């Protein structure tokens, strides 16, 4: 492991308390339903409910109760325009114009929609370039889109390999951008290791070669700033239930650069219509000229509702402030682990440097599954990832430096007393 801080005073609980006292975001912890003496470090899988999100859900429920079908155009948040309103609030988090964003679908359904639109294999350009560390659902969608065009996935899906099993080299990704590649699909942040990829470097390289490029933002939105419009990314897609705290199964989002707006989406559905004409119910669709065109069916209003309160919080705090604290939290946690847990065979699978480190750290240990179970027994909520990874995500809006300090002490106790051996080293049904 790498020693990042050598001053022993910085390993005392009093130092964590000092950091908390200077934290400008500490007041926001009270906005969330954080349980006493529980250290929730799984916000990169499912964020905690905020009180503002709860309130917007109740408000939407009340509009259903009060207005019935008229809730589509009446009430505090008219449903007919709700996805677009949320897109306006999401746009600053991804560095986009409001018309380039829409909240709709899920990560996988949105990727299907975007590939149906942008993957047009012809002549020599027939392949999709992705990476072997990407979240499997993205690869499933890519493979099915290739197969739907009558092509063989083994011939038309190119996967960039990882040298260490945790991270990717951007130069090797660029080397894979051959003249037969039509589309590149990459994560902005790798879901296991938390590595941040250089989106501008990769986008510039793809465009220099005439290749369309899109990014999965699931593990970056709400954790790091983006500049999708300025960078020129062709499209992006994401979920909203991780760092953005949109709730289990929250509606996802997508981005289409304005240079592509007006393009007919590959998959059409009536909610992608121009709003003023949607209820003309004509047999020929008039798609929206915004990213709203990429919607299919009726929005899931009750699943969108928590996002209004959550996005209100994010816009109030600002993504730059969130990123600053996130880096301090993960850096502090790594320092403590390096100091306290030497000799217990942990290694960092995440990047050490701030520019390439996302919103969580990734500890590698051969006993990872049983260590995670032992942590949960001691009120620390981690996240296990096959085959031997422990993801720990202290979240800027509701995690404190003292939470991080306590977590590391608990982890030390588990390892020193070997209480993890009381558990099987196998994942649960949901890991």
From TrEMBL:
Domain of life: Bacteria
Binding site for pyridoxal 5'-phosphate: 107-108, 135-138, 216, 219, 241, 270, 298
Keyword Hydrolase annotated: yes
GO biological process, one term: quinolinate biosynthetic process
Pathway info: Amino-acid degradation; L-kynurenine degradation; L-alanine and anthranilate from L-kynurenine: step 1/1; Cofactor biosynthesis; NAD(+) biosynthesis; quinolinate from L-kynurenine: step 2/3
SUPFAM superfamilies, sorted: PLP-dependent transferases
Molecular-function annotations in GO: kynureninase activity; pyridoxal phosphate binding
Record-level GO cellular component terms: cytoplasm
Keyword line: Hydrolase, Pyridine nucleotide biosynthesis, Pyridoxal phosphate
Enzyme class label: hydrolase
Gene3D superfamilies: Aspartate Aminotransferase, domain 1, Type I PLP-dependent aspartate aminotransferase-like (Major domain)
UniProt-listed Enzyme Commission number(s): 3.7.1.3
N6-(pyridoxal phosphate)lysine, modified sites: 242
Membrane spanning stretches: none
A matching Pfam family: KYNU_C
Cofactor: pyridoxal 5'-phosphate
InterPro entries: Kynureninase, PyrdxlP-dep_Trfase, PyrdxlP-dep_Trfase_major, PyrdxlP-dep_Trfase_small
Reactions that this protein is recorded to catalyse: L-kynurenine + H2O = anthranilate + L-alanine + H(+); 3-hydroxy-L-kynurenine + H2O = 3-hydroxyanthranilate + L-alanine + H(+)
Family classification: Belongs to the kynureninase family.
PANTHER family in the record: KYNURENINASE
Reported function: Catalyzes the cleavage of L-kynurenine (L-Kyn) and L-3-hydroxykynurenine (L-3OHKyn) into anthranilic acid (AA) and 3-hydroxyanthranilic acid (3-OHAA), respectively.
Subunit (UniProt): Homodimer.
Protein name as annotated: Kynureninase
